[in-house]
Amino acid sequence: MFYADIMKLPQLKELVLLGGAKGIHRPIRWLYFADCMECLENSDNLGDWIHGGELIIVTNISITRNIKKLKQFMYAADKKNAAGFIINVGQISPEIIQVADTLAMPLFELSLSIKLVDLSQLVCKKLIEQENRENALDRFFADLLYTTYKSDMETIYKAQYYGIDLQKPACIAIFRLFSEKGTVNEAEQEEYRTNLQKAIQYEFYNQGSKNLLLLTQNNDIIIRIPLYTLQADIKEVLQHIRNYFARFCKLSFWVGVSDTCDTVEGLKAAVKDAVKTIRISQIMDKKELFYKEMGIYSILTNVENESLLVDYYKDRLGLLIDFDKRQDKNLCDTLETYLECDCNVRKTSSVLFVHRNTLRNRLDKIENILNQKIEGLSFCMELQFAFKVKTYCDMFLL
């Protein structure tokens, strides 16, 4: 839920935003009353008591009058990506407003006419309603992708009920967190995935996509991007998500984006394309990859008889691969680099950090093993393609 949803409630019309307006689209996950004894005794460790997304209410005058302590609260809350603060009227100093503006942390003044019990009841009710709606959207999205409806029109009408137009241009994006094995535990991974989901919802809400279809599967987050609602280029939107997420998490993520679709069946095909794209992004070492940018890999991922791919690269590189294994050499790497450097000896020797004579000796050895000169556009392109096929097979088939 976002602040715009709260501000629509007539009972809270006297809730006044005093600072941090640039963060007004921070997502709200729950309320947290920071007047508890734990917080009073551990003012430096507010981050230990929240998970992120909390709208923090502070009414204890011993905290609000202590500018240093309140600033500590705000900085600790920002590190955990809290939603914002609500403080009683007359207890907010200009210095605290300045901190809120610096952090883009929404800071609201609570009027005496609004009772805390009413505030908590209204906000919590809205949060529960929003969660129920998101759960319903999740189920609908899962059914849309993985089950068969009687007709496309049935699906289209059901989507319209949720304010979603499946007949307008959209694409599928898959976000995948990555980390070195053993660097984060399961609980941390779950927290990072939740924060990434918030970052995605935050940015697309800003872009006008209030009914975002989103589904989490293991370490992936799958979303349908309604292109017709975006106010910026999709690459710019993805960069905003990356920047926002980086503020709170040490992990990064891959993104694979499908082609555009505007039909129900096209949406299902787009999911398959996005899966292929995010797999290939790891081969191409691109944190962000669009299906149209896959190049030759868009062909490889659509080959159903995968044994053909293995046979293809082994027919052309098998002798060299076997030699490297027997002799513990890396002539395959030498040849691949040479081809990537447009068969330029000087450039290749520079990339490999070897003398040109050493490189020439290696190339002579490779030609002897392959029993063919490494020359001619057709043969060199064939070898390059074989290396790409090998890379693909090594990562996904073997």
Describe this structure in words.
Residues 152-280 form the CdaR GGDEF-like domain. Residues 331-389 form the PucR C-terminal helix-turn-helix domain. This is PucR C-terminal helix-turn-helix domain-containing protein. It holds the Pfam family HTH_30. The protein is of the alpha/beta class and 398 residues long. It has three domains: 3-125, HprK N-terminal domain-like (Udp-n-acetylmuramoylalanyl-d-glutamate--2,6- Diaminopimelate Ligase, Chain: A, domain 1, 3-Layer(aba) Sandwich), CATH 3.40.1390; 148-300, Reverse transcriptase/Diguanylate cyclase domain (Alpha-Beta Plaits, 2-Layer Sandwich); 306-396, PucR C-terminal helix-turn-helix domain (Arc Repressor Mutant, subunit A), CATH 1.10.10.2840. It is built from 16 helices and ten strands. The strands form two sheets. Strands 1-5-4-3-2 form a five-stranded mixed β-sheet, with helices on both faces. A five-stranded mixed β-sheet has the order 7-8-6-9-10. β9 (252-257), α10 and β10 (288-290) form a beta-alpha-beta unit. α4 packs parallel to α5, α12 packs across α16 and α13 (331-340) crosses α14. The radius of gyration is 28 Å and the shape is elongated. It starts with a helix and ends with a helix.
What structural keywords apply?
about 400 residues, PucR C-terminal helix-turn-helix domain-containing protein, single chain, Udp-n-acetylmuramoylalanyl-d-glutamate--2,6- Diaminopimelate Ligase, Chain: A, domain 1, CdaR-like_regulators, Arc Repressor Mutant, subunit A, 10 strands
Quick summary of this structure?
The chain is of the alpha/beta class and 398 residues long. It has helices at 3-7, 37-41, 61-64, 67-79, 94-103, 116-146, 152-161, 186-206, 234-246, 264-283, 297-300, 306-327, 331-340, 345-352, 356-370, 377-396, and strands at 16-19, 30-33, 54-58, 84-88, 107-110, 170-178, 213-217, 220-226, 252-257, 288-290.
